[in-house]
């Protein structure tokens, strides 16, 4: 077998793994390679991640707060669960699942607002070896349906309705629409939150309140194999439908647990506040698993940073004496708009470390975060990673790594990033820019795309055979610091969420009056990137304003509000090559207003369209 790790890397992961609780120790550290994309870690081992998150803390931390819940409405009291209570709640929920026929290897989908039951629920799955798949509550019923069809989830856990800012989302009604006719969904479990009127289908729909009463408090942790799946999380790709990335148990646990401790320099009694929704990977790894693996106190916030006003995050930080804030650049930019006077009103004396994740953080936002939130005394860890990587890959170590604004800086121990040029050669010069790849395997990489290993190989391991290709571009400076420049594929990062252009185009093309469309990213002051859609209608006599509204509606219906185009330009044509391919590069240059670099258009099938598109270009008013 070819050696795929250095001795140092192998020792590092091996020793680290022994700091966790195993039911049976593993016998093979690693097998497989990045050519076949079949890397497996810690084979032969058996464990349960909830024993690592909960049971092992009971002796010393039974009375310690594990979870603090801050409701959407600031007038509603916050609540907390100690490690002892969280353990019991998880065991009880696990018994509820068992009573409904859910067992090891079964898939349970969660489509919920951010309340403790969501965290308890996913841990309850892990307790019995069931696989959780959380679908962000901002996705449409059709998106949920697609994910349910892909995963064949046996159960859907939801809320009657969810609170988020000034909005109430009728989640149960949306689930009803999503599961219509899907016979494999045996149970819809409803957690009451808004107490709004819903309809319950006999024999399928049950109230959590009613069932939990009959569930026992004691639930032994089911041993699972190291490589047994822990969860599936869907993310958009540059083509086709969303990919269900499968994470397995041991490898995910080892890297997520350690990276939480290292990056944030977590100390006992710190209070960690990650603002991500559990519907995204950040909410899995650094709101739930990372903190709990370390016996930390994690804060879960149901609402949004601007509700009821832009003071909310700072108030939460003071109220719960938060030491670590982990949020996204888009949130920082949104708050920046309200003026620095707002965070200046709050001293936030407990804050020690600030984190950023989800998209490149621009220098202006970085300095604002540093000055007005961190008061110049809190290091900012700009953490680069992905749903696929499971945990943080490139990031400063808080208080240790010398910071450079907008730089994710250096890889974590055991992580081996490289830059590739267009031809597939590893760039050896230190100062360079290229496509970001990872050379050596690490334990928390997703193992496959659920039901489609071929697509997994194609997407991540075929561009540069033998290397994991991230889809991101990056620069490296003389200090070896990485600065992530953004996606190099057809994925657009809107407010830190990945949106595949193909998916949005497919949705737009569902409109009966649209023949063809092309979606590209455009710089957006708050969202980082916005979506710009070019659409060709069949009937050019349609009122463009009306058509635009219908297009937004159809995208909202098929994908969800996050994928709604910001600007729509109705056109009679799109620049195409002679073979009929849409030249997205040209469209990108048009929306970015980078007309000098539009390049040679004379070889196009229809060069005359370019000028027309430029003349009629839309912009934010
Ligand atoms: C964790 C998460 C992954 C994509 C990734 C990249 C972008 C994430 C970043 C960043 C620059 C950072 N990204 N963190 N870009 N600096 N610190 O966000 O996962 O939703 O899968 O998105 O987000 O483009 O490829 P995910």
- Derived structural class: alpha/beta
Mean pLDDT: 96
Distance between the termini: 61 Å
Bound molecules: ligand 6R9
CATH superfamily of the domain at 495-616: ANL, C-terminal domain
Oligomer: single chain
What is the class of the domain at 495-616 in the CATH system? Alpha Beta
> How would a crystallographer describe the biggest sheet?
7 strands, mixed
Proportion of β residues? 15-25%
Number of helices: 19
Q: How many strand elements?
A: 30
Low-confidence stretches: none
Shape: globular
Residues in helices, as a percent range:
25-40%
Radius of gyration: 24 Å
Known CATH architecture of the domain at 495-616: 2-Layer Sandwich
Pfam families: ACAS_N (PF16177), AMP-binding (PF00501), AMP-binding_C (PF13193)
Enzyme class: ligase
Keywords: Acetylation, ATP-binding, Ligase, Nucleotide-binding
Domain AMP-binding enzyme C-terminal: 503-581
Please tell me about this protein's structure.
Residues 55-442 form the AMP-dependent synthetase/ligase domain. With 621 residues, this protein is of the alpha/beta class. It has a domain at 495-616: ANL, C-terminal domain (GMP Synthetase, Chain A, domain 3, 2-Layer Sandwich), CATH 3.30.300. The protein contains 19 helices and 30 strands. Strand 16, helix 10 (281-293) and strand 17 (297-301) form a beta-alpha-beta unit. The radius of gyration is 24 Å and the shape is globular. The model has no long low-confidence stretch (mean pLDDT 96). It binds ligand 6R9. Ligand 6R9 binds next to helix 10, strand 24 and strand 25. Residues 235, 280-282, 356-360, 382-387, 408, 470-472, 484, 486-487, 493, 496, 498 line the site of ligand 6R9.
């Amino acid at each position: 077998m070819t050696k795929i790790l250095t001795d140092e890397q192998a020792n590092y992961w091996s020793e680290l793994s022994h700091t966790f609780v195993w039911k049976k120790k593993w016998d093979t550290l690693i097998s497989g390679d990045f050519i076949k994309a079949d890397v497996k870690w810690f084979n032969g081992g058996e464990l349960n991640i909830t024993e690592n998150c909960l049971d092992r803390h009971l002796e010393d931390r039974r009375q310690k707060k594990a979870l603090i819940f801050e409701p959407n409405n600031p007038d509603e009291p916050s609540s907390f669960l100690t490690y002892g209570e969280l353990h019991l709640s998880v065991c009880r929920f696990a018994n509820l699942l068992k009573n409904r026929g859910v067992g090891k290897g079964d898939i349970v989908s969660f489509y919920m607002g951010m309340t403790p039951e969501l965290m308890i629920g996913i841990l309850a799955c892990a307790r019995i070896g069931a696989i959780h798949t959380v679908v962000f509550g901002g996705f449409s019923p059709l998106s949920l349906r697609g994910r349910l069809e892909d995963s064949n989830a046996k159960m859907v856990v939801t809320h009657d309705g969810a609170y988020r800012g000034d909005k109430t989302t009728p989640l149960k009604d949306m689930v009803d629409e999503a599961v219509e006719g899907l016979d494999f969904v045996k149970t819809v479990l409803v957690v009451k939150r808004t107490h709004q009127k819903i309809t319950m289908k006999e024999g399928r729909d049950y109230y959590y309140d009613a069932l939990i009463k009959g569930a026992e408090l004691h639930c032994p942790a089911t041993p699972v194999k190291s490589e047994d799946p822990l969860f599936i999380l869907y993310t958009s790709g540059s083509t086709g439908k969303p990919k269900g990335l499968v994470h397995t148990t041991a490898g995910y646990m080892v890297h997520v647990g350690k990276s939480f401790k290292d990056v944030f320099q977590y100390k006992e009694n710190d209070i960690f506040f990650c603002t991500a929704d559990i519907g995204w990977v950040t909410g899995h790894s650094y709101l739930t698993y990372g903190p709990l693996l370390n016996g930390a106190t994690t804060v879960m916030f149901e609402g949004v940073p601007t509700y009821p006003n832009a003071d909310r995050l700072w108030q939460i930080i003071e109220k719960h004496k938060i030491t670590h804030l982990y949020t996204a650049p888009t949130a920082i930019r949104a708050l920046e708009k309200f003026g620095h006077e707002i965070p200046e009103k709050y001293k936030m004396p407990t804050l020690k470390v600030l984190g950023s994740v989800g998209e490149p953080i621009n220098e202006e936002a970085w300095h604002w975060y540093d000055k007005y939130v961190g008061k110049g005394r809190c290091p900012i860890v700009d953490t680069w990673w992905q749903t696929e990587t499971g945990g943080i890959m490139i990031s400063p170590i808080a208080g240790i790594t010398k910071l450079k604004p907008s730089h994710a800086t250096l890889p974590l121990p055991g992580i081996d990033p490289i830059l590739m040029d267009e031809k597939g050669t590893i760039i050896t010069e230190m100062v360079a820019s290229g496509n970001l790849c990872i050379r050596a395997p690490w334990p928390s990489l997703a193992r496959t795309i659920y039901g489609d290993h071929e697509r997994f190989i194609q997407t991540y391991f075929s561009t540069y055979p033998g290397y994991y290709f991230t889809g991101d571009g990056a620069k490296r400076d003389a200090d070896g610091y990485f600065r992530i420049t953004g996606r190099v594929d057809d994925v657009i990062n809107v407010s830190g969420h990945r949106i595949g252009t193909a998916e949005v185009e497919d949705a737009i093309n569902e409109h009966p009056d649209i023949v063809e469309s092309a979606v590209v990213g455009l710089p957006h002051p708050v969202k980082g990137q916005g979506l710009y859609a070019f659409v060709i209608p069949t009937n050019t006599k349609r009122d463009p304003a009306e058509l635009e509204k219908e297009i937004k509606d159809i995208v909202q219906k098929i994908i969800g509000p996050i994928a709604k185009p910001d600007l729509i330009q109705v056109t009679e044509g799109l620049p195409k090559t002679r073979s009929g391919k849409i030249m997205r590069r040209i469209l990108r240059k048009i929306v970015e207003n980078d007309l000098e670099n539009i390049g040679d258009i004379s070889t196009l099938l229809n060069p005359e369209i370019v000028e027309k598109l430029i003349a009629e270009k839309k912009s934010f008013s």
